[in-house]
Design goal:
- The chain is of the alpha/beta class.
- It folds into two domains: about 60 residues, no CATH class; about 325 residues, Alpha-Beta Barrel (TIM Barrel), CATH 3.20.20.70.
- Helices cover about 45% and strands about 10% of the residues.
- The protein contains 16 helices and ten strands.
- It has a four-stranded mixed sheet, with helices on one face. A three-stranded parallel sheet has the order 2-3-4, with no helix packed on it.
- Strand 5, helix 11 and strand 6 form a beta-alpha-beta unit.
- Helix 7 packs across helix 10 and helix 10 runs parallel beside helix 11.
- The longest helix has 18 residues.
- The termini are far apart.
Length: about 400
């Protein structure tokens, strides 16, 4: 199979320059910024997918990862006004938003007390009254209910605001949250790092420099994190590669990123609704180039509630090895923006079947990619025979 793929690359009719880039990437040699842009501009989808899949299978074989997780979104009230966001509401629009009480949040956690979830993902709007110690105490009490749970919480945007309000450095604020029980950071808020693009789409929230500094500080105190990129709006291919290059440099320095997650811009009910969304071809191309360029990232994730189940299945042949988790209909961030999946919930059995249907090998993972269960030959009928 490997030789067939390499033969396809060499006989694909593309330029010798692109073939040289393909050989370089497959050998594990680093692609430059200029070469990354060239892959976007000149590489056809089948060509890019073949390279990305070879790299993916060299790293992970046929394994495809998922986890059992839920999202808790304490509020969508936000002091920031990002033009691409369909989710958050400014304080003056409070009647259109929500604020969960602490008891409501604990009730959500208690409802999963006897269920086999391994991660709680906490993100939301940046509420002026919800600060560093408020959220720290929230994590502490969640851990009292589920001591075993991994808490992945707060984008760099939320953390920058919390630390600024609490008058502590980023490292001090992160250490406070870690001491309360936080285990890792998600990758949200990165958007596009290019300062001019950022000024147009999210000028009032944390800067590129602050985002990178927060994640660097997190890695330095033992909090791993994810990284994202919002694509398919007003950015160019050069902006995407620049974004990934900044992440790649930080990963060289710290090694603290778990996975890279390209996030597709969705245009429903936001200030950028006049823009067309990227095509499925462009989505798959973006995954493939991400896998090729980010040589020091172990994992590339496709977030299935955002791009839909079928595109997520396709992405597994374009460099992706992770399609996120069961979610259990516990996030509104992408459904409110017009994502294909308006009810983002899959049972473990459904998620395993989704992966098996495209001849991949399902592995349930922990947040840090420890293997929890190999589902290749798992028999769900034994589970279903146990009385509820």
């Amino acid at each position: 199979m490997r030789h067939t793929s390499i033969d396809f690359i060499h006989n694909s009719g593309v330029s010798q320059e692109l073939i040289g880039l393909a050989d370089k990437a497959i050998k594990g040699e680093r692609i430059t910024v200029e070469e990354g842009i060239l892959l976007f501009e000149k590489g056809e989808l089948g060509f890019l997918g073949t390279i990305a899949n070879l790299i993916r299978e060299k790293k992970h074989g046929n394994h495809t990862f998922f986890n059992r997780n839920i999202h808790i979104e304490p509020t969508n009230i936000c002091v920031f006004d990002c033009k691409f966001c369909s989710y958050s509401k400014l304080l003056r629009e409070k009647t259109q938003g929500w604020e969960l009480t602490e008891d409501e949040i604990y009730d959500i956690v208690r409802s999963y007390k006897d269920k086999a979830i391994t991660e709680i993902h906490i993100v939301g709007g940046v509420h002026p009254k919800m600060g560093l110690h408020y959220f720290g105490n929230l994590i502490k009490n969640i851990k009292k209910i589920r001591p075993d749970i991994h808490v992945k919480a707060f984008t760099a945007v939320e953390l920058e605001y919390m630390c600024r309000k609490a008058k502590v450095s980023y490292k001090e604020g992160l250490q406070i949250l870690k001491d309360y029980g936080q285990d890792s950071l998600p990758g949200g808020g990165a958007e596009i790092f290019d300062e001019k693009i950022r000024a147009e789409i999210c000028d009032d929230k944390c800067s590129t420099e602050q985002w990178l500094e927060i994640h660097k500080n997190a890695h330095e105190i033992g909090l791993p994190s994810n990284a994202t990129m919002l694509y398919g709006h007003i950015e160019s291919y050069a902006h995407r590669i620049d974004h990934m290059d900044r992440l790649r440099k930080l990963q060289d320095e710290t090694g603290g990123f778990n996975t890279f997650i390209p996030l597709k811009f969705r245009n429903k009910d936001n200030q950028m609704s006049h823009l067309k969304e990227s095509t499925v071809v462009e989505d798959l191309k973006n995954y493939a180039v991400s896998r090729i360029f980010l040589d020091n990232f172990d994992h590339i994730k496709a977030y299935w509630p955002m791009i839909g189940r079928e595109t997520s299945q396709l992405s597994l042949s374009y460099g992706v090895d992770d399609i996120d988790g069961t979610i259990d209909d516990s996030t509104k961030i992408y459904s409110m923006a017009g994502a294909e999946d308006q009810n983002p919930a899959l049972t473990t059995k459904q998620l395993v079947q989704l992966i098996k249907d495209v001849h991949r090998h399902p592995i349930e993972r922990g947040t840090l990619y420890d293997v929890i269960q190999d589902y290749k030959d798992y028999d769900f009928s034994a589970e279903e025979a146990v009385p509820a």
